[in-house]
Structures
1.
Amino acid sequence: MLKRSVIVASVLAIGFVLGFGTLAFTQEKKPTATRAGLHLIHAAAKSLEDAEKHLQRAEHHFGGHRAKALELVKQAEGELKQAVEYAKANPPASSTTPPTK
């Protein structure tokens, strides 16, 4: 009788552990700026920094186009900084629609 009680208690305990563990993994995660693709914005910013360095090191003025490109790169860097600030201040709303099968 005692052996049967131990087996039943063990099965119930294992069931609770597996059940709650599965429940924890299936909870919908709160959207964050990182999950919204912020890493792609950072990668683009790094590419723009590299482009700016290359343009600054260019020895030829290219008829003013190099200076214009530098100006546009700096403008794009500013836009990306604003995008990051916006993403951090306004995380995306979580979707309430269930995934389709």
2.
Amino acid sequence: MAIGDEFFDQNPDSPLTHFVFKLDELKAHLSDARSALSNHSGEELKTKAHDLGRLDSLSTQSTEQDAQQYLEELVNQLDVLIPLVEKEFEPISKRLELELSYGHISFDLLIYYFKKGGKYHYESWGEKLAFVLDGTSMDSSFRILNINGHGMMWDGHEYVHDTRVVDIPRYSGTKALSDLQCKIMQDDVHNELTERGRLYAAVSGVHFKSYDGRRVVIDENGYCGRDPESSRDYDDYVPPRSNRYRATPPPVPGYGDARPDSPYAGDNSGQKSLEFPEDQLYLLPVKVHGFDIRDKTWETIDVRKLEEIHFDEHAWDHLVLNKATKALIKGLVNVTKTTNATGEVFSDVITGKGGGMIALLHGPPGTGKTLTAEAVAEHLKRPLYVLSSLELSTTPATLEKKLGDVLRLATTWDAVVLIDEADVFLEQRSLHELERNALVSVALRVLEYHRGVLFLTTNRIQAFDEAFLSRFSIAVKYPELDVDARLTIWRKFFELAGCELWGGSGQPGDGRQSPDEFVKLEGQEPQCYVSLADLKELAAKPFNGRTIKNLVRTAQALAMSSDEPLSLEHVKVVVEAQEKFLTEFAKIKL
């Protein structure tokens, strides 16, 4: 193929002045051809002729003389073509220079203004996006200039090139450069986008973060996998003309398949961020996709609003549970962070089975079962994925898919999973309920291969199928709260509400309180005072832990509505209302 054939094949109707886009390339070819004629001979000369367009120069029939003749003709033709192109382009060049000196440009000059390989940016949905220009073209009506370039993005597995297209409709007269949809990259914008890109690169892979006060898991691969038909649908951010490709040009070398099996190491750092070339950070976008752990929804997230999570360091201390049982649970969940020599979580002797911790928590409502899972997640600094039995299907096929999908995500995220009220698929099998038997079998199979931390809660342990017993790493019974346990819970919730507790018969500050009856709120000014005697009176009432939490929260809301600090009087009003409701409810049941 001769020099320039490709250009003419792709642009058959282009004027000679459009050859200016290839001028630098032509000059380089001319220099190479002259150098080859001066410095090479024999096979080397034939190789140079091949590289410069004489594709048959390496065949056995081709001679050194053929190669020399081709290169001499190439030099002669380029010696004519290059000055001709420069002469033809000179009026356009002067006109372009004049218009640019005034900061304006005509539509027909845009194809010469935007240069291949240049750095540009445009606005998409109110955000700047940068790209390297790959080329320009006119649409079939010659009324729209298509500017084609590429940026970079993380696709869940690797950094890939991201096609970016800007369309500029034809306009009359001239337009200010500052009003163009696409602008040349200036240093201040480049620096801004580089810093933004640094934030984007920092959350490539899987990361557990805080976003607008909510906890989210950043996971592009998880987002893409949620629905194959829309796995890369960014219509909420990138214009429809934009698309992705991975073959041309290729992914950034050295950045593929870098995800470890376990993205966490028991802290909030998440997966280690993959290194990304400093000089390309400006090409990265501003949006990533993350999963809202509480609402269980995928969201488009601005990387500038992501923050580190402030975990509750005292969550484990708030758990009212037997000390030995707490120590056992803590020890078992800590073991799930241990890895063997191959870097995999310790697992069953059969490859792929188990390796995690499945705990059954059973007992009456409000005794601390859910709080245990929450405390473990806070202790491990991991996401907590709460799954209600209502979210799981009662048909075997659907249950297997739903539960399997959740546990796969949880394994990728190293999340703690809580399946609340798991009775629906763990009940005893019987000879007469074939579908329920299938449901139990599916649950057994899925749970058996889970590698993470999983909690199951139930109020009906007596209905469980015995086959599950061997699957549990630990089963913990939560008894009805006694007076001492309720006292501890009341005390902790008052502490969290900012109340200082005092005892004895005196008043706060009179020196008559017993020292061991104080709870000091370090660094906090107490908003109210509650006596130990008051706490004992409240603890005598048969409320469970969840009810106590709700009572204190409601009392706080009552105080806020009155623009007053929380006091015991607010609590008493709420407690009285609750007792009245329970009395009426008991009468109705009778």
3.
Amino acid sequence: MRFVEIIITALVVIAAVYILYKNLKKKSRGKCDCCSDVNCPHCTDKKKS
């Protein structure tokens, strides 16, 4: 049973690191990383100004 808990924890950590990496990569390119929608209101406000 302990092995299953370790596997689940590892999967959660891997998913979190992947999302962090993806967001940092987008941010370094100057893209919006707050959501995946192309019509994000936060991103369109930044583009207008």
4.
Amino acid sequence: MRKRGKAVAFGKFQAPDLRQIDGFSAGQRRPHYRRTAPAAIRARGTGKARQTEIGEAAFGWLDGDPDATWKLRSKHLNPFTKLRRHLTPAQINFYFSIVCFFSPPVLGSLVSIAFNAGGVWSVLLLAIKRRRFNIDGPMLALTAAIYAYCAAMVLASIVNGTLAADLRFFLPLITFLLFPISYSTWSITEKVALARIAILASAAACFGALAIAVFQYHWLGMRAEGGAGNAIVFATTTCLAVMLCLAGALSGIEKHWKLLVLAAMAGALAVVYSASRMIWVAVPIAGIVVLLVNRRRFTNASMARFAVIGVVVALVIAAIGSRVIMDRTDFLVSDWDALNANGDHSTALGLRVAMWEIGFAAVREMPVFGHGISASRALMKQGFHEQFGLSAGFSHFHNGFLTAMVEAGLLGALALASIFIVAAWNAARTLRRSVNPVERFGATMILVAVIIYLTGGMTGILVGHDILDATLMVFLISGTYLASGRTVAPTGKDAPAVAPGSSRQP
């Protein structure tokens, strides 16, 4: 039994009597260092002791304040607090970019949901001054063209007195209006990081697209539609992913070029399974453009070798998808014969020809401002019934510029064309002036998007589909930023830490 006032020994260590420590009295067990951090206790008497928030919380139990300990514990255990600490603006953009480049062929409308939700969030960030507008010449020119198209669509409805009926059809225009806002938010990401995200996410999309295409074609016995639920949309977005893989392999940005080539082959085969003939045409055109853009990195012998390899790969893909190719070719020939011999407009080719005839007749009636969106669809149904005896109707005329002319006249068609003209001009300007591989990759993104959209839009959808609209904006925003934009850091609370003595860039 130990004696009072004496130290108690435990092995080599000796625990002193608490009553002999300064601050303890005979009837008092709590110290005078309440709510003081350990470092401050050790520094007592040196003039450096100070109370801190951590000390108050950590030693709250000594003062009989259990809430302080609970606050500290909940602060560390709260998942939202941890998520907010770990997800920086750059990391959010990282995951957002993966979704935008991976989802179009595989997950379909998720790209539209993500892009529009991200755009609305960007509006909020700009409003509370955590982001700032990133304005440069190419972005401003493209914004003007996009906004001109949106204005032409609204003006056509006003002139025709169908504004109230067309209001619900204006919702897809929000995707276009978000272009400068999303551009400003996306430009906080480092260019090299964004380029690699686009390449690798597209490679994953190609493999996913092929898996879905094989399942849908061989097991379900249908044209491959992917997650889009539409064969043309699936083929368009998959073709874009294929070209990004090819551009990434040739540009040298991503070292795993063999994986990218394999992914491009998988995506190209998925395009074959989609049975979209116009996208079949777009694949070699866009592929040749990608090869020409990167020709400086290779000798003439290497270019010839790449061309030979490309032909061999194309033949292999054609052999694997020969059944699909033969079926679609037979359909085209039979549709052509039925149209010429019997005037049958009920086939896929016949319906397109009928829509084009109805559309051009409508353009002649209202050439400048068009008929408006809702009236154009009514005209199509009426034309099918009166001219061809068919009960059919579509949301577009299976030609992007004809659809724009019927809905918004020549003003709408010219405004729509200006989007692709300005985008191609920006890309060509970068390719003439820059040797930076990342900038040239961004220009390549724009060029392949223009080629694939215009080629597919001649007999299908150009704009006006949620997945295609969002994907087009993703490619134009990221391509323009990589080609000619500048990286801008977040502002406000999201601003990066600045070292002492340094200053932020204006």
